[in-house]
Amino acid sequence: MNVTSHQGSSAVVNGIRVELIERGAGKPVLFLHPGIGISPSAPVLDALARGARLLAPTHPGFGTSELPRGMSTVDDLSYFYLDLLEQLDLRDVLAVGVGLGAWIAAEIAVKSTERLSHLVMANAIGIKVGDRETRDMVDIWALTPDEFNALAYFDPNRGRHDPKNLTDAEALAMARNREATARFCWSPYMHNPKLKARLHRIRLPTLFLWGTADRILSENYGRAYCAAISGARFETIDRAGHFPHIEQPEEFARRVLAFAAAGMQKAPPVRRASGD
């Protein structure tokens, strides 16, 4: 791995600069954001940082983070984060992912759990549950913003914003988030066809959290995902949809930190492996 630098507002991994929020003290928590970006997660990041050492990067291609030309799959993102964990010499890490972030977390864990202690997956995407003719997830690119908010949130107002009130930087970040989500998730749509068969390699205490009002993904999808990881636990969060960390940030953080504090033992680590 190339020599890299790390600063308070960014990290550079193998020449790729990404935004990085880092604060708090204690057990390291790596928070991996969903496709809508890191900014809406601010309240839950504050809550997590009160009880842990929080590290919340912005994925390559999202926000103002750089995107190298050859990075185009969630598999690529998982290797980026394995390098980040190694660069920062992080161990005993609780990885928390929401949506796309949960998919990335799963891809990390099937490759190596050496630096991880626990895994939390919230309203996760990334596997195929139905048959090849059935789409597991709503086609989000066919929806207007209001239609998306109605399906994604318990309270659709949580997702609404007036474009006239956005700064140029905020508008650009939102556009990059949408473009990057399409880049990493469009084909195959929102999943890796090989991931489900690899989930048995995750030998970590694993918690699935699911907002009960999610109409982007069904709860049955989440339960099937959970069942593919040995010993994983499934819990629901009421009055929340596809982004429970946004609609119920304090409850979300409480569940995450309580799970990490429960002291569940991990199995022998899955060491880093190359792809097929």
Descriptive report:
- The protein is of the alpha/beta class and 276 residues long.
- It has one domain (10-261): Alpha/Beta hydrolase fold, catalytic domain (Rossmann fold), CATH 3.40.50.
- Helices cover 33% and strands 17% of the residues.
- The chain has 9 helices and 8 strands.
- It has helices at 42-49, 74-87, 100-111, 145-152, 168-185, 195-198, 219-227, 244-247, 249-261; strands at 10-13, 16-23, 28-32, 53-57, 93-98, 116-122, 206-211, 233-237.
- An 8-stranded mixed β-sheet has the order 1-2-4-3-5-6-7-8, with helices on both faces.
- A hairpin with a 2-residue loop joins strand 1 and strand 2.
- Helix 1 (42-49) runs parallel beside helix 9 (249-261) and helix 2 (74-87) packs across helix 3.
- The longest helix has 18 residues, at 168-185.
- It is globular and about 45 Å long.
- The two termini are 21 Å apart.
- The model is unreliable at 1-8 (pLDDT under 50).
